[in-house]
Design goal:
The structure holds two protein chains of two kinds.
Chain A (H helix, E strand, L loop, with lengths): L1 E10 L2 E11 L4 E5 L6 H9 L4 E10 L2 E2 L5 H6 L2 E4 L6 E5 H15 L7 H14 L10 E2 L5 H15 L3 E5 L7 H14 L5 E6 L12 E6 L2 E6 L1 H10 L1 H8 L2
Parallel strand pairs in A: 3-10, 3-11, 6-9, 9-10
Antiparallel strand pairs in A: 1-2, 1-4, 4-5, 7-8, 11-12
Chain B lengths: L5 H10 L6 H14 L15 H13 L11 H13 L3 E6 L2 E2 L4 H8 L3 E5 L14 H8 L5 E5 L9 E8 L5 E10 L4 E11 L4 E11 L4 E9 L4 E11 L4 E8 L4 E10 L5 E10 L4 E10 L4 E11 L4 E10 L6 E11 L5 E10 L4 E10 L3 H8 L5 H19 L3 H19 L5
Parallel strand pairs in B: 1-5, 4-6, 5-7, 6-8, 7-9, 8-10, 9-11, 10-12, 11-13, 12-14, 13-15, 14-16, 15-17, 16-18, 17-19
Antiparallel strand pairs in B: 1-2, 3-4
The chains are: A alpha/beta, B alpha/beta.
């Protein structure tokens, strides 16, 4: 589904990704781990299409299409979803309005009929209940005045409403207390399906106790230094990132 | 530099009917002769050049009478009036090219029975207030055919807002002077709408002065809506005086016009008064919109809170100058001003200057201004959810503007203003504003 080959990307003049290669198939859950500055978030932003990141070499193919050719909104409509590490506060833009507009943008793209406000509220309330979210959040500005945990839950709410084919969750676990972490993990697990791939970008192994990955990759210096199954995450937790760097000879 | 022809001005003024206003026009003429129009050398007019208005005035004075006695309606003028009347539920008085339309005087009779008294300035009552040393006010008085004095009695019980619809139609002349003197008596409450619209593609210059006194414990909601044609000039002034515990809640919306100057001057003369001022200006193409506000805190305690926001595109130029003067002894003053601007193009320009002059000791004052572009991280966030660049821009600009509308008084105006604002924003974003 997602084929990344020799991806090189810079921010400003600083190279961050230096020849990253990764294949993700339908139904798989991949965890991407690595120390700060290894390029985890850059990878997530590049896949979503952030213009601050320049791809200098390599290819990213999604369902056989050149993903890098698509505008961020086109990627979203094609089923790519990024759960932000730092969800943006947008005062004055109603959360429900944005969610409904996002759902309908995708439905239009797929040639489906748009949902109306009533249908939207029904679906949203149900999903919010699963995430233990107060429905009042729908009527607030997007992420406006939300706590860290509320913002992350709002990202997961969007994930469950938009039902993407490829979800990249960028440090969705960071800054969460145990209850919020469990709620988020429950939301992510509910999204696991044979048609969907999930990439969990995380610094810590903690989330992986609740969402079990099929593959774990360790990023170091802008490329994948090591890949394995979930035991790699445990090993990493025990030995630290220094171990990967040494093993990779970087 | 373009200057006004005093001969033409005097001749036009003398042509107006001999009535109670005649001596006032004469006094205003000699007052205006001392100053002429303000120029960019005046600090308060640094960024706004009235050259085009002066040139237009000279031409209009040369080949038209100063104002027509009773304007005629064209089909598009009627349509423009109906649009306002159908969308904002208020008791409307129509002022066409500066002259109160006869058709709406029956409304005045109705209002009379509800404690709202309206009479013509030419009937000779309460005219001492007409002249001041302000040049634009003198110019207005020199060419004033007539104006209205409105008194809101404490017993007024009309729930609908009182609306003044200033409509200018170039077919009836290219120069309009309108004057309103509104007296809100002690304990009275009223909502006032001041709407400026116009039709015609020729150049036009409207110069309007509104004087408002809010007496002890009276409350006024005030909405100014400016949606004039794209070749029209408006210089407008609101001069307000707030007495003991008076409340003025003011909202201003500039959605149209070629060159617009909006002066708001609030004089707090007795303690306990409070004024809230919110304003929104949208400008694209070559529009020029200048908002100058001034609050004089002569006594304390009193509160003034002000926020103006602007969205600019194309080569638009906007000016915000918000001055709060806390006079000696005005202790207990709480004054706040802010101005935020969103520039959608590199060629738009805004000059912003919130100013505080404080001569008292025990005061709480704050001010701030920002000029910026749309938040790129918010744009990306919205796009990453499947909305395109234009929708994202639209959402963010509407949100930026929406703060002013939601803070504005007179709910009866909100739906219409929101709709017109959205429409004006769409035109601004796609660059079709001229």
């Amino acid at each position: 589904m997602l084929e990344i080959k020799n991806l090189n990307a810079t921010v400003g003049d600083t190279p961050i990704l230096k020849g990253l290669t990764l294949n993700v198939n339908e139904g798989e859950v991949h965890a991407i781990m690595g120390p700060n500055g290894s390029g985890k978030s850059t990878l997530a932003q590049v896949i979503a299409g952030h213009e601050d990141y320049e791809v200098t070499d390599g290819t990213v193919r999604y369902d056989g299409k050149d993903l890098l050719e698509l505008a961020p909104e086109e990627r979203a409509r094609e089923g790519v979803f990024l759960g932000f590490q730092y969800p943006v506060e947008i005062p004055g833009v109603n959360n429900a309005y944005l969610l409904k507009a996002a759902i309908n943008a995708k439905r239009r793209h797929n040639g489906e009929t748009e949902i109306d406000a009533f249908e939207f509220l029904q679906i949203a309330r149900e999903k919010m209940k699963d995430l233990d979210m107060d429905p009042a959040f729908l009527n607030r500005g997007v992420n406006e005045g939300f706590s860290g945990g509320e913002k992350k839950r709002n990202e997961i709410l969007q994930l469950t409403l938009l039902e993407p084919r490829l979800a990249i969750l960028d440090e969705t676990d960071s800054g969460l207390d145990i209850d919020a972490l469990k709620a988020v993990a429950k939301g992510v697990n509910a999204m696991r399906s044979p048609e969907r791939a999930i990439i969990l970008v995380t610094h810590y192994q903690r989330l992986l106790d609740y969402v079990e990955p099929d593959f774990v990759h360790v990023l170091s210096e802008g490329r994948i230094a090591r890949s394995g199954d979930k035991s790699l995450a445990l090993e990493l937790e025990e030995k630290g990132y220094e171990w990967v760097r040494e093993a990779a000879g970087t | 530099m373009t200057v006004i022809s005093h001969e033409l001005l005097e001749a036009a003024s003398n042509q107006l009917p001999q009535d109670a206003l005649t001596p006032i026009r004469k006094a205003a003429l000699s007052q205006f002769a001392k100053t002429g129009f303000p120029t960019t050398k005046d600090e308060d007019w640094k960024y706004t050049n009235l050259g085009a208005a002066i040139e237009l005035s000279n031409r209009a004075l040369a080949d038209e009478s100063a104002s027509v006695a009773q304007p005629t309606w064209t089909a598009d003028a009627k349509r423009a009036i109906d649009e306002i009347l159908e969308n904002i539920d208020a008791n409307w008085i129509i002022v066409a090219n500066g002259v109160t339309a006869l058709e709406t005087l029956s409304k005045a009779e109705f209002l009379e029975s509800r404690g709202v008294h309206i009479w013509k300035l030419s009937s000779g009552r309460g005219d001492s207030a007409i002249i001041s040393d302000d040049p634009m006010t003198s110019f207005n008085a020199a060419l004033l055919r007539d104006g209205l004095r409105v008194s809101i009695r404490p017993s007024a019980y009309e729930a609908k807002p009182l609306g003044f619809l200033f409509i200018d139609n170039t077919q009836n002349g290219r120069l309009s002077q309108a004057r309103l003197i509104i007296d809100v008596e002690a304990e009275a409450e009223v909502d006032i709408i001041e709407a400026h619209i116009s039709v015609g593609s020729d150049l036009h210059f409207e110069n309007t002065v509104v004087q408002l006194r809010v007496a002890n414990n009276a409350k006024v909601g005030y909405v100014r809506l400016q949606d004039k044609a794209s070749s029209h000039i408006l210089v407008g002034k609101l001069i307000a005086e707030l007495q003991k515990d008076a409340v003025l809640d003011y909202g201003s919306f500039d959605l149209g016009g070629a060159l617009v100057r909006n002066d708001v001057s609030v004089d707090i003369v007795e303690p306990g008064a409070s004024v809230k001022m919110n304003g929104l200006y949208l400008a694209g193409g070559k529009q020029h919109i200048d908002n100058h506000t001034r609050v004089d805190h002569r006594v304390g305690p009193a509160v003034s809170k002000e926020e103006f926001r602007g969205i600019l595109n194309g080569r638009a130029r906007c000016i915000f100058n918000g001055k709060a003067i806390v006079h000696k002894g005005a202790d207990g003053t709480d004054a706040e001003q802010s101005n935020h601007n969103l520039l959608l193009s590199k060629t738009a320009e805004v000059d912003t200057k919130p100013e505080l002059e404080i001569y008292a000791d025990d005061v709480k004052c704050a001010h701030g201004a920002t000029v910026g572009q749309l938040d790129t991280s918010a744009l990306f966030y919205i796009r990453s959810r499947g909305l395109d660049q234009e929708e994202a821009t639209q959402l963010l600009t509407r949100a930026f503007a929406g703060r002013i509308l939601s803070a504005a008084p007179i709910l009866a105006t909100h739906e219409y203003i929101a709709r017109k604002t959205d429409k004006a924003l769409d035109a601004l974003i796609d660059g079709s504003t001229t």
